[in-house]
Write a structure and sequence with these properties.
Blueprint: E1 8-12, E2 17-23, E3 29-36, H1 38-41, H2 49-71, E4 80-86, H3 90-107, E5 111-115, H4 116-122, E6 138-144, E7 149-155, E8 158-163, H5 170-180, H6 188-195, H7 219-236, H8 241-246, H9 253-280, E9 285-289, H10 296-309, E10 312-315, H11 326-337
Parallel strand pairs: 1-4, 4-5, 6-9, 9-10
Antiparallel strand pairs: 1-2, 2-3, 6-7, 7-8
Helix pairs in contact: 2-3, 4-11, 5-6, 5-7, 6-9, 7-9, 9-10
Bound molecules: 5'-O-[(R)-(carboxyoxy)(hydroxy)phosphoryl]adenosine and zinc ion (ZN).
Amino acid sequence: MPDLAPIALGIETSCDDTACALLDGASRVLASVVSSQLAAHRPYGGVVPEIASREHLKNWPAVAEAALATADLTIAQVDLIAATRGPGLVGSLLVGLSLGKSLAFALGRPFFGVHHLEGHLTSPFLRSEGPAEPVPERFVGLVVSGGHSNLFAVAGGRVATLGEARDDAMGEVFDKVGKRLGLPYPQGPRVDELAERGDPAARPFPVPSCGGSLDVSFSGLKSQALSEIERIERAAGPLDLGEIARRGEEPPAMVLDLLAGFRAAAVGQVLDRVERLHRAEPIPLLAVSGGAAANRLLRRELEAWGVERGVALRLVPLAFSGDNAAMIAHAALLKHRAGHADDLFLIEAESRIALETPPILR
Ligand code: KG4
Ligand code: ZN
């Protein structure tokens, strides 16, 4: 029986998912439970912050119990506690952080307040089964989610931002385009699925260049997609893909082509920045994470790019691409191994925090 210590309990409540995970000392995921609040927010067409906080509080006991039962552990066997401290919805963060601090205080265990992006950034090294791969000294992190589209340089535990979204994040534009077509939240995965069936060459979108920087901009692509939808509606009448799906029908080919063109340009832009960076300074290893890292085209294109350029690639396992608590516990274990712990009486929930704030991964 391998030595499992220290057992880490992670809590993630930065937005609308209530998540709890248990990892062993080798960052093997023993349990990762994510409870979605989609049903509670659906009538409002988006996440309502106050409802999110209340749902976290309501869902937590069942989520934590399910995680402990899956890992076959009791709370007394947990050696350290970690919770997301930001960025995110402050009311939601406060629920998870307060739960984490209370548990750490009551059990007399060390506590870690984790930056949400630090969790995503190191999540590609988690494995669906078995211990996590050691996080390399130097790598480039690409984080694409509903709130971020960032390129980070990680070296010796320090993180520097190389490029970021100038407007909407990648996942956010997939959601907005899908919403305009009548799809329910989160629209990103559904838009991706529909785009698989379209022809990207039928209605190509230009790839924004952001003047040669490593930043990305998705709002132009979004506006172009929205005006194309309007053009199709003027010719063919209102489009409601939710209703079309309920009737078991196939969306018009024109719409599938439009989504394929939109997705190809969105992914093309990310690939362009990765290539631009690699040309300026060879990338030692590219670690890709965040909810939008589930995008099928992005995964295929990055894999092909990595092979072509000889760059090692770590794509986050799909189980840990969207928000989850395993990545939070993992980031905390990395800090713990490096001898750090946070003062639970000082750590605060913060809706906005830069990732560069002092050495984070150690
Ligand atoms: O990381 P995440 O769960 O939450 C944030 O930290 O934002 O990311 C959620 C985002 C949503 O915008 C969702 O639509 C998007 O990731 N997403 C996708 C795909 N799967 C999830 N976007 C594009 N293609 C996908 N397959
Ligand atoms: Zn996230």
